[in-house]
Amino acid sequence: MSFEFLLLGLEHTFSYWERTVFIDNADVIVIGSGIVGLSAALHLKRQQPQLKVTMLERGFLPSGASTKNAGFACFGTLSEQLSYMKRSSEGDVLRLVDYKWRGLQRMRENLGDANIDFHQYGGYELFMDTEAGKAEEALDHLTYFNNLLKQAIGSADIYAVADAKIAEFGFKGINGMIFNPYEGQIHTGKMMRALLDKVYDQDVLVLNSCTVIEIENDGGQVCLKTSHGDFRARKVILATNAFAAQLYPDLDVIPGRGQVLVTKPIPGLKLKGTYHFNEGYYYFRNIDSRVLFGGGRNIDFKQEETWDFGHTDNVKNSLTNYLNEMILPGQHYEVDYWWSGIMGFGEDIRPIIKEVQPNIFCAVRCNGMGVAMGSLVGEEVADLALK
Ligand SMILES: Cc1cc2nc3c(=O)[nH]c(=O)nc-3n(C[C@H](O)[C@H](O)[C@H](O)COP(=O)(O)OP(=O)(O)OC[C@H]3O[C@@H](n4cnc5c(N)ncnc54)[C@H](O)[C@@H]3O)c2cc1C
Asked: Which of 28, 262, 347, 356 is found 20 to 30 A from 168 (Cα to Cα)?
């Protein structure tokens, strides 16, 4: 007897009371309780308070990217804008920045800065000694992007040269730095807890450790086969991000693992803000006198294209080497935490928000930018489901 069969067999144990109140009475079921799923549930209830909304989350806690990320509240470095411009158009770059900026404002309005430890310390893009050409190209476009993005941010004082601060932070091997005062940081755990509390306040039923295995549109209703039996609802929102293709293989969402470390507190830590280097593939920040540092997916894209959490020696070594030689050279530190999270990527860096089957909607693929855009992505899919 397979494990799955054993789990599905549990459905027969539901009582009449359980079935009528917990299992079969949702108007909308949201699958996945990350930023996008929670924001969708919140918006559904704010728009139509009488709706019965249930969330099914396979993890004991949300188990994808939303509780695992770096907590950068950012809309992109100069190099990121330039790289996206090369693949798309001026209009696309502006629209994406505008979307992320509005998404960040919406998260702050929804949850309150104090509840998520939002701090606008600014963000820095670092160019290594070996990247002089890239730095020059970015600087050549600095005024152009400041003028373009003024339409989204409301000011043209966005990117500025900050080379003088390299020595102040104590970095080694860096020959250029660009500062963006509009970038901020949050405490990811507090953000997710605040979002969950909002959703509970709206009387949404959140059921954890419940994996959706199959979705069927059964005429008037949608039937979900789960690890705890069958659920039914009028409409379903799929907010499973990197794992979307497990249920809908045609969705163009490829998983990408991000590995992260946090050091023990470092007395006299000089870093303050968010920092990116190597085209954004590496990122670090301060948190509670510690350094959070993550990235390195680009060392081996294929290896990191996985649904499995975990660590690899090559990425761990790369992160600790950069810490030793570039970020904290000559300083004593110890790593306190290692973890990983799974993001959803695609060729097109915009999220997928659409009806995948009648009454089944998806909002997935935040391309590593879900802190910034997740609140709006959730709202958009909720509006689509309510139409
Ligand atoms: C290491 C790392 C660092 C990052 N740093 C940043 C950052 O600094 N700034 C930023 O903007 N973004 C960052 N991101 C990206 C951001 O975290 C994501 O874009 C965002 O969290 C996506 O939210 P989501 O709700 O779409 O997906 P997720 O948070 O992944 O939520 C999907 C949920 O669906 C659940 N699920 C999956 N399959 C099923 C199923 N079959 N049945 C039931 N439940 C299911 C999962 O358990 C999960 O909880 C980072 C991501 C990682 C991994």
From this structure: 262
State CA 110 to chain mean position distance: 17
- Is 338:345 a contact under the CB 8 Å cutoff? no
Q: Is the CB of 287 under 6 A from ligand 1?
A: no
Stated as kind and residue range, the H or E segment containing 104 is helix 90-111
Torsion, CA 270, CA 273, CA 276, CA 277, rounded to 10: -20
Residue 353 Cβ contacting ligand 1 at under 6 Å: no
- Ligand 1 atom nearest 373 alpha carbon: 11
* 282: β partners: 277, 295
pLDDT digits (tens, 9 = 90+) for 61-98: 999 999 999 999 999 999 999 999 999 999 999 999 99
* CA distances, 340 to each of 270, 374, 377 (Å): 26, 19, 23
pLDDT digits (tens, 9 = 90+) for 190-248: 999 999 999 999 999 999 999 999 999 887 899 999 999 999 999 999 999 999 999 99
* Token pair of 243 as six digits: 């794992």
How far is Cα 57 from Cα 255, in angstroms, rounded to an integer?
18
pTM of the entire predicted model: 0.96
Do residues 256 and 368 make contact, with C-beta atoms less than 8 angstroms apart? yes
User: Ligand 1, residues 38, 58, 119: which to mutate, most atoms within 8 A of Cβ?
Assistant: 58
Q: Is the CB of 351 under 6 A from ligand 1?
A: no
